[in-house]
């Protein structure tokens, strides 16, 4: 398969603004194989507008074939954290969203290596997934090193804005946990300001990582470059 935008595995064409990258450097042959052989089975149906123009609700029990708790990772990057969580907690289901197809290919390689089966992969925008998930269907959500959008005029593109947080609050169960990690102080500032009014209370806000944490590629880069992270935990009210 090709990794050009015409590829059948390309994330859905944007029907809303997405400012990040969808493609990076040419995929390795092995990664093309993961996309062509594995993504079809791991990709949930009915998430994209093309797949589900009426935007009917998609039941996670149908996606996973069981009613285990559902966790959501937004922007899984290379997939380290998502696969680590799936392997650490085999009794949960985790859906990851990532529009960057090179990251999706990396995740699929890790899924193969770890042999985890409690995963589902939406190769696109988390907003498209949240649109169709039922109310109160997600027990935990993870936002790890989100795109920082450092310029003030771009802060509204950040995930920690009502455009993203209100749909997230709708799909989260009362008492559900939302974790955010970032090395960007101004991103943490905006997180502290914007998440609680969307329907969450702060549980923890610390430079000490969670007990079950695995460092991601972006965290490794931040640490190498001398930017210590913050780990913020919220609970859905
Ligand atoms: C800075 S990277 C961090 C990746 C990974 N979480 C890590 O810690 O290594 C942020 C990722 O979020 C993804 N992203 C940005 N907006 C998104 C959205 N609306 N839905 C899903 N993923 C998104 C980007 O494509 C990018 O891969």
TrEMBL record:
InterPro entries: SAM-dependent_MTases_sf, tRNA_(Gua-N-7)_MeTrfase_Trmb, tRNA_methyltr_TrmB_bact. S-adenosyl-L-methionine binds at residues 73, 98, 125, 147. GO terms for molecular function: tRNA (guanine(46)-N7)-methyltransferase activity. Its EC number is 2.1.1.33. Residues 1-57 are annotated as: Disordered. It catalyses: guanosine(46) in tRNA + S-adenosyl-L-methionine = N(7)-methylguanosine(46) in tRNA + S-adenosyl-L-homocysteine. GO terms for cellular component: tRNA methyltransferase complex. It holds the Pfam family Methyltransf_4. Gene3D superfamilies: Vaccinia Virus protein VP39. Keywords: Methyltransferase, S-adenosyl-L-methionine, Transferase, tRNA processing. Substrate binds at residues 151, 183, 216-219. The keyword tRNA-binding does not apply. Pathway: tRNA modification; N(7)-methylguanine-tRNA biosynthesis. It comes from the Bacteria. NCBIfam families: tRNA (guanosine(46)-N7)-methyltransferase TrmB. Catalyzes the formation of N(7)-methylguanine at position 46 (m7G46) in tRNA. Belongs to the class I-like SAM-binding methyltransferase superfamily. TrmB family. This is tRNA (guanine-N(7)-)-methyltransferase. The lineage of its organism: Bacteria, Pseudomonadati, Pseudomonadota, Alphaproteobacteria, Rhodobacterales. The gene is trmB.
């Amino acid at each position: 398969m090709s990794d050009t935008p015409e590829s059948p595995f390309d994330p859905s064409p944007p029907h809303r603004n997405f400012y990040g990258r969808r493609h990076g450097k040419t995929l390795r042959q092995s990664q093309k194989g993961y996309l062509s052989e594995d993504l079809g089975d791991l990709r949930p149906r009915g998430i994209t507008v093309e797949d589900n123009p009426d935007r009917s609700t998609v039941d996670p029990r149908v996606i996973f074939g069981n009613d285990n708790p559902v966790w959501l990772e937004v922007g899984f990057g290379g997939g380290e954290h998502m696969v680590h969580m799936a392997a650490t907690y085999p009794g949960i289901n985790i859906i990851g969203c990532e529009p960057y197809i090179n990251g999706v290919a990396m995740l699929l390689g890790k899924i193969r290596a770890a042999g985890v089966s409690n995963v589902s992969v939406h190769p696109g925008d988390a907003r498209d997934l949240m649109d169709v998930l039922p109310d109160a269907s997600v027990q935990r959500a993870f936002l790890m090193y989100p795109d920082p959008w450092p310029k003030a005029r771009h802060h509204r593109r950040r995930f920690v804005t009502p455009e993203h947080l209100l749909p997230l609050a709708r799909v989260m169960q009362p008492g559900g946990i939302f974790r955010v990690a970032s090395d960007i102080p101004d991103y943490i500032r905006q997180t502290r300001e914007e998440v609680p009014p969307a329907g969450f209370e702060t549980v923890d806000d610390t430079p000490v990582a969670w007990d079950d944490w695995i460092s991601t590629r972006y965290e490794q880069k931040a640490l190498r470059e001398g930017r210590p992270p913050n780990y913020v935990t919220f609970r859905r009210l």
